[in-house]
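Limitations
The structure tokens in this dataset are predictions for the assembled complex, not deposited experimental models. Users should treat interface geometry with appropriate caution, especially where small molecules or nucleic acid strands are included. An illustrative entry is reproduced here so readers can see what is and is not provided.
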Amino acid sequence: MTPDTTTKTLTLAKAINAGLHRALTDDPRVVLLGEDIGALGGVFRVTSDLLAEFGPRRVMDTPLAESAIIGMAVGLAYRGYRPVAEIQFDGFIYPGFDQIVSQVAKLHYRTQGAVKMPITIRVPFGGGIGAAEHHSESPEAYFTHTSGLRVIAVSNPQDAYSLIRQAIASDDPVLYFEPKGRYHAKGEVIPELGASMERATIVAPGTDVTLVTYGPLVPTARDAALAAADEGVSIEVIDLRSLSPVDYPTLEASVRKTGRLVVTHEANRTGGIGGEVIASLTESCFNYLESAPVRVTGFDIPYPAAKLESHHLPDLDRILDGIDTVMGR
Amino acid sequence: MVESSPEFVQLITPEGERISNPELDPWVADVTDAQLTAWYEDMVVVRRIDTEATALQRQGELGLWPPLLGQEAAQVGSSRATRDDDFIFPSYRENAVAYVRGVPFADIVRVWRGNAQSGWDPYKHQLAAPNIIIGAQTLHAVGWGVGAKYDGVDSVAVTYFGDGATSEGDVNEAMVFAASFQAPVVFFCQNNHWAISEPVGLQAVQSIADRAPGFGIPSLRVDGNDVLAVVAATRLALDRARRGDGPTFIEAVTYRMGPHTTADDPTRYRDKAELEAWKLRDPILRLQRLLDSLGLLTPELEARTQAKADEVAAELRAGCINMPDPEPLTVFDNVYATPNATLEKERDQYAAYLSSFDSSNTTSNGGRS
Ligand SMILES: Cc1ncc(C[n+]2csc(CCOP(=O)(O)OP(=O)(O)O)c2C)c(N)n1
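Predicted assembly:
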């Protein structure tokens, strides 16, 4: 079968579906498992139609037990499978947390490299969609703190397609965060693996401020750059893509050029990726910085009720406010 | 499966005929005509709450709503069997339990409007905050029950969960602990046959009630659409707990006739014929037929019940649409019981930020325009 090389316009959700489809086609050891991923196609339809095409041994509806979903993936990986587990919503990953940080992350190390854990764990994350409690969280930092895991967050259909395939192909376990608020965003997708999932990308070039973000806030950051341009400030927007490891060389080159740094994410501030990125860049680029870097993040609160989430989440205005601060205005 | 083998205890047939069951009959021997008609009213009213809340969701007043359509007998019967000092740990679908526990109608929908994460004071109604993490509340019930036992009172913890939840580790761990500590807990499983799109057969290859004895917990399988049988089973279980005989597991075999929530489309995964078959076992219809055979289904009762349903629906609607949005700075409230300097700084900074736009408008989103 000749590989499909045509460009298509797809939603982010459909792009992941296409990536999963390709991975299932290319490698018979790839299996999907999760709650409602079969006939329903997942609550977000990301796995739509895969059961019909690949059957219930490749696309497994599981009972409701996140710990067991991840634990079963570990056993499958022991036998040489490449499991792709779906956690239905961000806030439901915690029952599986122990299996992720204690087993998935550590088995390769514990066995001196004998056992590989090529497990991909897909997690719809982020808020702004008026959802109920536990459906809008940003738990990525818990996993960046754990050695042995790779953590990525996608922001657009092309990356969604390319990075799910890279994640599944990786011999390391990957936490793959999908911005659920952007599932319906459309974009062009070419069926290529694209830039390495370890690389950050410069979404918009600029000279005055480096604005670092990932996942659901990438389009917002781009909007902020446009708005700032109207006020005569040139913003360089960077999409991290990989949250662990972080592509520091790309960030450092940018900060050395602009001298100012803002990091924005939906997740809580304390212990978040923003603090880590700023600490690291301050260490490496201190002499280039013209002002103290700024974080624009969610507050240190449990994710609030839907009517209040607009106050918790960084928006265009709060990002611009952060830019004003580093500009000394 | 379940449909073909009615291996559950029943006191009212789907045709509304009162049949006897030696184990359960004594537990409902004292039930009066007035109680039967009151439960009928409860069930009609909660079905009306479902209809009204679904309409409110469609009109954009609620973000989401989880209907319990078809599960009225299971919820009304079990919660009506409890005492006021018993404590209930529900999941997210127990709106009839909230109604029975006297939660103000608008507070039942407060969570689903997105104004709060629990609409009621748990201690006022002896009803815990609804739990969305599947099965997590069953462990809380065990802790509460052990506490009640230590305190020397004969109150009981009752916990509600679905058939899907029985697969979760927490529910199984809860059974282990409840048995170990002989906790006064009633595990009330509503087997409504579906966990979103997954049929109960995926969660359990034998009856769910059969599992509990493996943990050392006696269990009962009851027709969940038969309000009298549910009352009897729950009374039996509560009595065991009060007498110090520990936990009991009840599987109420029922059916979710609506979608999982207003965001769900059950036509994608379940057969129309299955739904039609279950409609014949409608819990309200069944009690109506029994009342009729007893000469209790008078025009007066029907009129009174309808009037009550209308009144509740109107109050629910008014309470919902007139509910004010919460104040922005309340996002910072109650994160800690004692003051937290970091968070107070964040609150002060955000308050200053909000007021920098328009000092007269503290509820603004902080628009930069
Ligand atoms: C730990 C966890 N995993 C997944 C979900 C998403 N979810 C919400 S309801 C539901 C199905 C629950 O089925 P069941 O326990 O049978 O209860 P029912 O909804 O039928 O009353 C799922 C998978 C959740 N809320 N919590």
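Some entries come with short summary sentences. For this one: Chain B has 13 helices and seven strands.
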